Amino acid sequence: MSPRVGMSLDMILRAAAGIADEKGLNEVTLAAVAKSLNVKPPSLYNFVNGLQGIKTELAVSGLTMLYEKMAASAEGLTGETALLALADAYINFAEANPGLYDATFQKIKDGRIENLSSLLVELVVRQLTANGYAQSDTAIHAARGLRSLLHGFAVLRKQSAFELTKSIKESRKFAVVAFLRGLQEREQ
Asked: Membrane-spanning regions, if any (predicted)?
């Protein structure tokens, strides 16, 4: 079977990401993606290796976007400003792309995913060490702590768990600054 004219991997991924963002990653199925593209599910096999192939490509796409946004956000910045920019980029990505964000946490064996995950960790570690928040032997722990803090905000926000009238962005900034100052104090 030859591919539908005009069909591409990018079209499939945009459709799958749309479903994931709107309905959740678990709602991404071959049938749902095919329906949104007005094709039959077997047509997708010309571009991806089944549902696992789609989910792998979603993870690659999500990690790539997250890395690019975080790297660009901190470019030319230093200190607390750089780390707050990284944090904002992380949260903004998670909120704008909830399905892609969820896709980045899938346990998939793929060299591209492993490489992108390493790049993200290296980016955060580099910012933490360059700005005096961690030493090389503590940087991975600091990076994990920051990621946990940000992931918690992303998940709680997605679940509408912040119902008070206080600014969530200000709460996040407060938490990140407190975390960073704790790291600084520890390093002194």
From this structure: none
